[in-house]
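User: Quick sanity check before I run a bigger batch. Here is a single chain. Can you write out its predicted 3D structure?
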Amino acid sequence: MNVFSRSWSLFKSSWSVVRSEPSLLWFPVASAILVIIASVIFFGVLGALFVLNPGMQRAVVDAAQSAEGEDGSPLLAIIGIVVLFVYYLITGAIATYFATGMAGAALRRFDGHDTSFGEGIKIANSRLGAILGFSAIAATVGVILSMLRNNREGSNPAGAILAAIGGFAWNVATFLVIPVIADRQVNAIGAIKESALLLRKTWGEQIVGGGGLGLVFGLAAVAVVILTGVLLVVVSDIAGLFWTVIGLSVTTLIVLAVLSSTLNGIYKAAVYRYAAQHQVAPQFDATLIEGAFRLKGAAA
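Assistant: Done. Predicted structure follows.
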């Protein structure tokens, strides 16, 4: 109940920022649209290159045929790593670009300034070097973690454990990277160092994750799925209503995803403001921001 109460309080505080500046909602919308477009183009080009290039087809087929046992083909592995890295880089850069714009706009709102989608884009445009640098680093980390998770030694869970630990450490260390980039003229490595330093200085060395907004949106998504299942059973014999229910359900889940991304971005900006300036954003209660992280072994 305490976790839900905290999540609900964070929802209300973050939502109050959105109500005062609805343009913040456009950042995750634009990000999602461009990520989808980029994904379609990327895999479309990749597929076309494979289909239209006999040499590439032969290389992949030969590599597959030369694989021995479960060791797989080094060439296929290298191709897979390169493709995964490029895809992570492209989609990560898009997501980071719009997240930076939203963080910059949110920070302006916290300081009482008028802001807009255009203002956020201007901020993101002025940070392109740091955005691309961080996206490249994040893509490299993502590929390494993916390789650890997908290790072939099914009887040896060490890779999956290392991936889980590494992923958590990365997420904590980079928790404030986006607002750091939005607020300061730093390079990617400097932003990561600053994020980790702010967390250590504000919450200490032995920090673990605190309560966030995930519970509210998780419960909402579960409720939508359950309600959809019930409605589909009720209208299963009515073709028109069946697809209407499906459409409404998908639309609702998309809206929840946009809201979740927006409110989480606003929350991170508020946490950064507290860590960097020791000031609580006026829309938030101090205990909500101070509880962003907690000490290992402390009561939840």
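The chain has twelve helices and two strands.

User: Great, the batch can go ahead then.
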